[in-house]
Description:
The complex is a heterotrimer of chains A (303), B (421) and C (381).
Chain A: H1 2-32, H2 39-56, H3 64-94, H4 103-124, E1 129-130, E2 139-140, E3 147-148, H5 149-171, H6 173-183, H7 185-190, H8 195-221, E4 223-224, H9 228-243, H10 248-268, H11 272-290
Antiparallel strand pairs in A: 1-4, 2-3
Helix pairs in contact in A: 1-5, 1-8, 1-9, 1-10, 2-3, 2-4, 2-8, 2-9, 3-8, 5-6, 5-8, 6-8, 9-10, 9-11, 10-11
Chain B: H1 4-21, E1 29-40, H2 47-64, E2 66-68, E3 76-86, E4 88-89, E5 92-93, H3 95-107, E6 111-115, H4 120-132, E7 136-139, H5 159-163, E8 172-174, H6 179-193, E9 198-203, H7 207-223, E10 226-227, H8 244-253, E11 257-261, H9 268-274, E12 283-285, H10 293-298, E13 305-309, H11 321-331, H12 339-359, H13 367-375, E14 380-382, E15 385-387, E16 399-406, E17 411-419
Parallel strand pairs in B: 1-3, 1-6, 6-7, 7-8, 9-10, 9-11, 11-12, 12-13
Antiparallel strand pairs in B: 2-3, 4-5, 13-16, 14-15, 16-17
Chain C: H1 2-13, H2 15-27, H3 31-44, H4 48-73, H5 81-95, E1 96-97, E2 102-103, H6 106-128, H7 133-153, H8 155-158, E3 164-165, E4 171-172, E5 181-182, H9 187-210, H10 212-222, H11 224-229, H12 234-260, E6 262-263, H13 270-283, H14 288-317, H15 321-324, H16 328-333, H17 336-350, H18 359-367, H19 372-380
Antiparallel strand pairs in C: 1-2, 3-6, 4-5
Amino acid sequence: MKFFVDQLVLGLTNGAIYALIALGYTLVYGIIELINFAHGDVFTVGGIIGLTLIGIFRLEHLSPALLVPAVILLFAATMTITGFLGVAIERLAYRPLRNAPRLAPLITAVGVSFVLEGILFMVKGANQISYPNLLPSGKIGGGAFEIGITNLIIIIIALVLMVGLHQFIQRTRIGRAMRATAQDRDAARLMGIDINRTIAITFFIGSALAAAGGIIFGFYYQSIVFDQGFEAGLFAFTAAVFGGIGNVIGASLGGFVIGLILTFVAGYWSGGLQWASVVVFSILILTLVFRPTGLLGMRVAER
Amino acid sequence: MNSPKLLAGLAVTGLILAACGGGGTTTQTIKGTIKIGIDLPVTGEDASDGLPAQQGGKLAITQKGKVCGASSHADACFTLTAFPLDDAVNGVHDPKQGAANVQQFVADSAVLGMMGPFNSSVARAEIPIANSVNLTMVSPSNTNECLTQEPADGHCKGQAKILRNNSTKNNYFRVCTTDLIQGPAAADYAYNKLGKKKVYILNDQQTYGLGIAQNFAKQFAADGGTVLNTDLGGFDPTATTDFKSKLTQAASLGADVVFFGGTTATKGGVIRKQMKGILDVPYVAGDGISGDQFLKDAAPNAANSYFTVAGPYASQLPTATAMIAAYKTAFGTDIGAYSAQGYDAVGVIIAAISRAVDDAGGNMPTRDQVTAEMLKTTTYSGAMGTFGFDGNGDTTLKIITVYKWNPDTGKSDYADQVTVK
Amino acid sequence: MSRSKGGLLERLAQLPPKSLRAFATDTRVPGIGLGLVLVLFPLLDPNKSHVNVAADAGTFILLALGLNIVVGFAGLLDLGYAAFFAIGSYAYAMLASGQFNIHIPFWFLLLTSAFTAAFFGVLLGAPTLRLRGDYLAIVTLGFGEIVPRVFKNASTFTGGVNGIVGLDQPSFPHVLGFPGYKFGFNPVPYYFLILAILLLSVVLISNLRDSRLGRAWMAIREDEVAAASNGINTVTTKLLAFAMGAAFSGFAGTYAASKLFIVSPDDFGFVVSVSILVMIVLGGMGNLRGVIVGAVLIFFIQRYLLIQLPGWIAALTANIPFLASVDVAGYVQRSNYLIFGLILVFTMLLRPQGLIPSAQRKIELELGTTEEAVADLRGSA
């Protein structure tokens, strides 16, 4: 029982990270129908920006009393900076190709992914980079239900961000503009919605959420490496597809499901660690083949 | 590489040579140039291991400067030059690039021997090509046993023979001992010296990592210990970031030591770091985690980590003192984990060439003559001590050193030394 | 569909005269001069290692030509092309080595491995080619990640991490008084072999391009809906592109594996797939000459420039006080990913037709899609 609870908590923590990345895929795909291959690398860049800020402001050595507001500020600053990175990528690489043949933005997205990875590789090298955990460690609860405080906080942060995003999209004017643009870009334009601005905001939000995922990843695993966004991005994309691409709740759900699958495959199957990624990629292909709309997906027109 | 420091080192060694040669009576004539190929990964992830080995080899060549006949034709000399190549593509060692590099050595008739490669997977691509023209290869670091021999249990499936194209001639040698010795030495240390009885194993699913894990597991069980996971915990180093799930499993099984087969580049340090709070027991691995990067990756949980190196403790060997000093003068850094191996690998080739010059009657020897002399090497005195090669091309110097990482000093401390026969 | 298939067979039937014409017009002449240089190269350059490099480059040219069918002709983004290369390599390794003690002759496997790879292309393509183009990209990406891992983990059949060692090398048998000839590790025969394969491939592919099937691919690439409404069976046509692309990587796999003497699962990663994509994007999607030039350029950058450049820069900056403290050489050494990425992004933004554009593709990419290809197809039907 204890082993099961342990695995469940680990899986949900992993899932929280994948869910935060998956949201960015799903938002961008929902609005411009582009698989943003660079999104996984935006996640890594977010983690590195967070690490840089921690270094500059020496947050590791802060007194515990100041740590809570400092970590909140850290998230806010990192998410803002990374959000603008996402906007810049959209403006420079994707917008000029919005009306080009479909192949062009896809290839560009692969290119942007390599540019981001390439810059990180050039500057930071191929080695693991150490990351501090600013979240409190230790355990709460007892017996079989003893769980790590870090894990609990990570799951809570992710849930707060997800609920916040959902409310934002449902309740605000910008959220409504995003939904309208996703449904029918031309009609939205006719209704006076600034399409470019709405798309830019979508990239901002997606990238900011990935950055939050990057910091959480750093805190949790205490190390980060230049190319982790490739696999993490693919896992998260699988989560988005599994949940139903374009669907925010689906992506969150998908993220947790993929996290749990990865963890349980590793924990319960003796050869699991070496097959875990094969299992996830197979889920990706099978979902796309048999149920391209995913669990809760919206209808995507064939093109 | 062409730094002023190296030139300074050259000047110093040149003076020494001049001083030593002063007493000679014979007039030496330079009859040509002999090149020694060096193929190692010197860029990217593997550079921290490959570069110190390459520099060790270059040091041996610049110190000698030339090679003359060993006895009967001591007046016939050849200028020695290094022909260094890099087998890393996109920052990672690449068997195809290694094969292409060996083709370069093969195509250059002045190349009579090569030092390298670093990685066992590259060696498998290179040995057949070099073997087809009988070009001597000496690796500073390949520990995978299947490259040279067929252990009694047959787990190598005749690879050594296939790699030599089913021919009986052998052209491949190594100056480090094999994982058949290294893995069991680590197991003995964990069981006897650390007193651990239940091991949980992880390996990176690479030639080296899986091989050393298998050899560790066999000996640990033979010692009387329990191997908790018979699948040896293979994982995919590019895709796996989360080891916590496996480590939780290990903890629930009651592991009191973890063995890792793999390298720092394949997450050896990351695993150690993630053990904190889940499984606070000692960590044992092979020479793959001997680089400094391990301390950075594993911090703040690097303490209580042990590793083995397939060679003697060079920093304290009297035979290595001169080499270590010369290395520092030439390159401005301390020796790396494989510098002494690289130095001796080249040194033993030069010694064989020297005897081959005699065999060739004072002329440029053939590759066959050099390889024949290599096979006769029984007592070569190098920085690591006196060694020779057995019939498979494996070194007779079967010494394993155990080190313990010390996060406080940022260095590894000597823990134990095991000599087999 | 039966109609367009018939068209292909017709084309293949009249291959020789048509192919010569196509090839002559395609490469124009300095073609003959270039051909002479290529044939005489091993005799002119006494250093066999240069021949060896050229023989290795040939593998990538072949791969680029194959991927060009999928991406350049049919407009389908395949991000896991290295998987088919792996399948071709392993197919040869398992059927011509001591692994299962099967030793089928190289020449036979060279042909059949193309079918093996094509078979897997169909296997993956059949269920997925109905999907939108971008889904296809991600499916192939996933496939490209799965295949090498399966080869690595299924060690009973594939030798696992160690791969398969000791593959049979090509040889000419001793028949009818001809003395036999073994390729061994001599790069020269491999060079002539890949040269012949490439020549044949270029002829075959340029015929395919000009065939009814080729025009159907271009029609689909430009406007799938319009193509379908003109009676093209889009799924089958796309499947054929996928299968043919895979077939060429099967060729490449057999050739490369037999030349290297070993296969190992670590040589077929995503970066291989992307390198090949970079080759065709840079050279010019859809244009054979462009693709070949792109492949040679990227191969040169990867295997020579990026390896040599850091050394030159280190020597250059060592004496400049300002730069000596900065690890410029190190940055250059680690610039490969960035260079690939920049090539992809800037080519797409500034010159989507590549260095040597195909005339047709240039119009499309600059002006957006037109009905022209469909009209063209309709006219010739």
